[in-house]
Specification:
The chain has about 130 residues and is of the alpha+beta class. About 50% of the residues lie in helices and about 20% in strands.
């Protein structure tokens, strides 16, 4: 029988091999890119926002299974949510979403998409509505 850790690992691999919401949006309202120099992960996140709510989201990039799967899971998670909810996401939210213990090195990979997402969410406010 598979333990829950194995199930989560399966899910992460599945998101990595068959990413959801990977690609680009037409004329996104928010686009932000960052990378993790230690392992070469790169993530770009694009969001479409209407009345302060994320109506569509996409990511692109490359890197390890953890960073790519986290990005894909995050996109699913945030569609339909207000930008304020995105700002409230933290390390715990990501770990809960992934469901497995992650060592410090891999944690950087898992948190990269969150960092990019939050930078984008906060950056939008500098623009007039």
């Amino acid at each position: 029988l598979m333990g829950s850790d194995d199930l989560y690992r399966e899910a992460i691999l599945d998101y990595y091999k068959h990413p959801r919401h990977k690609g680009h949006l037409d004329s996104p309202d928010i686009q932000y890119h960052d990378h993790n120099p230690f392992c070469g992960d790169e993530i770009t996140i694009e969001l479409k926002v209407e009345n302060g709510v994320v109506v569509d989201a996409a990511f692109d990039g490359h890197g390890c299974a953890i960073s790519q799967a986290t990005a894909s899971m995050l996109m699913e998670e945030i569609i339909g949510k207000p930008l304020d909810d995105l700002k409230a996401l933290d390390k715990e939210s990501i770990l809960e979403m992934l469901g497995i213990e992650i060592g410090p090195v891999r944690l950087k990979c898992a948190l990269l998409p969150l960092k990019v997402l939050k930078a984008g969410a906060y950056g939008l406010e500098e623009w007039p509505e």
